[in-house]
Amino acid sequence: MHRTPKVLFAVFGVASASLKAPENTVGHLDKRSALGYAPTLEIQNPVLTSKWFEGSDFVQVLEIGIYNSHSTNYLTLADTLNVTLTSDRLELVQAATLTRLAPSQAAVVQIGVKNKAGVARGSQCSGSVVATYGQAYDYQANENSIDFHWSPEWYNNAKFGIFIHWGIYSVPAYGSVQSNEDYAEWYGCRMHDPNYRTKTYQYHEATYGKNFNYDQFMSNLSDAGYYPKQWVDLFAAAGARYMVPVTSLALFDASDKISKRSAMHYGPKRDLTGALLDAAAQNSGPTWSYTGATVEYTGYVPVNDFVKDIQLPQMKELAYNYNTEIMWCDIGCPNNSTIFVSEWLNWTRTQGRQITFNSRCGLNGDFSTPEYRTHGDTVVAKWETNRGMDPFSFGYNYQTPDDQYLNGNDIVQTLVNTIMQSGLRDAGSWIIPHGEAIYDTRFWSSTPGTGNLRYTTTKDAFYIFYLTKPSSTLTISDPVPWLPGDTITVLGGTANGTVIPTQRTSSGLVLQIPDAAINGDKYVWCFKLSYTSTW
């Protein structure tokens, strides 16, 4: 099976001289056979040598390092490794193969190239070394097989999504305040603990009485004011590219043979998720709870096993009936996720769809999910930070003052800081005009940024963010890849496109920023470095 997006390695240099490699790219493959799994290969240091293949018409030797970074899996004959080159000015004459590479070992292979007709010696060229290996076996219901799955490019490029926390907890909407605050969506748990800091137990008794149980809130869960199209329009205006509804109550058309604890039977008596997905093409995954004992809760249908008879079937309903693209689990409680994920991955592949799942489904997942925090440094592995607009709650907490919620500046700063490391409409008014520097970009491997500086990259440009209003002279000591002849312009704001005079000094890269650019934006200032130099 060809998996070139995972092992594609761009190389640049001079024909008949040398090719230089900016970075290594790793590729995962599916299960190879019943006896073993495919390796994880890296392409390293492709070099156009001065050698040619003996007996050939001066077919030049391009040497490429192949490294097996997997700790246990071998490259074998079954993987049918084939290494080739595509180039604008070089012609592939001879591909390379390799039949054995042990874990944590490297080897050098040789491919043969010639200049294409009409290409002079010493001409500039670009090219991609491509390794293909492995076969298209189905995912198996075990962690080793599922761990070879990658988050898809549409998710990697999206950058900004929105959680929708809406459930029974939205009725009492209580989580205390300031230092005592806790997630409002945990109301059903905290109301039974008289010693917990939120004093939810005391609040519940004083407000609703000792005999008022949590499920009685279900009758007050309403869809009044729920206009899915307006929600989707708001998310789009905010610049979000995906959404994830979250609840401890099924807000979708769950089979009543599994459980009647859903919005179809109580409260709105409506398929709230279906209505939202009719207005947008994004999908979501639920938050699950678990108990080992039988509890006769509202909507209870007798079952033998919660995981097998409720959790797994409802995950399948969301995945197959709603064409879910993301399954966002929580907590990582007992589960049958190996069964669910392997079947789901195999099914979506037959449809040509690429889906993803997080690290809280009981598996390693495609991405980790730090909560109300980001990493302190660049992290290569895929991750998604998540938080509420409330200072410390995902669900609505009526006790939080309005001025404590994230505003446009807070959201933009959080987004920029997150991307650099790997009021919604107000935030969107900044995010969308600066989207070129956010969507479809990647983190800069050298540094996430020092001080108020942050960076993102693409293959054609480099983006500089400054987290506060800059002065007329901005000196950057980080090793920004600027060369004489490159162009730096303002991105976004009223001075969009303005060229910024730039020079390299002993102190670093110095940008001279005009007043129009300084006063023409808000929240975060962004500059685009275009690779226009032929220096």
Secondary-structure topology with pairs:
Layout: H1 4-7, E1 9-14, E2 18-20, E3 26-27, E4 31-33, E5 36-37, E6 41-52, E7 60-68, E8 81-87, E9 90-94, E10 96-98, E11 106-115, E12 124-132, H2 143-146, H3 153-158, E13 161-165, H4 187-190, H5 200-208, H6 228-237, E14 242-246, H7 272-278, H8 306-321, E15 326-327, H9 337-350, E16 356-357, H10 408-420, H11 424-431, E17 442-443, E18 453-457, E19 461-466, E20 473-476, E21 487-490, E22 502-505, E23 508-512, H12 515-518, E24 525-530
Parallel strand pairs: 13-14, 15-16
Antiparallel strand pairs: 1-2, 1-12, 3-6, 4-5, 6-7, 7-11, 8-10, 8-12, 9-11, 17-18, 18-19, 19-24, 20-23, 21-24, 22-23
Helix pairs in contact: 6-7, 6-11, 10-11
Question: What does this entry look like structurally?
Answer:
With 535 residues, the chain is an alpha+beta fold. It has twelve helices and 24 strands. It has a five-stranded antiparallel beta sheet, with no helix packed on it. The protein has a five-stranded antiparallel beta sheet with strand order 3-6-7-11-9. It has a five-stranded antiparallel beta sheet with strand order 17-18-19-24-21. Strand 4 and strand 5 form a beta hairpin. Helix 6 crosses helix 7. The longest helix has 16 residues. It is globular. The N terminus is likely disordered.
Main attributes of the structure:
24 strands; five-stranded antiparallel β-sheet; 535 residues; globular; single chain; 12 helices; 19% helix; alpha+beta; disordered N terminus
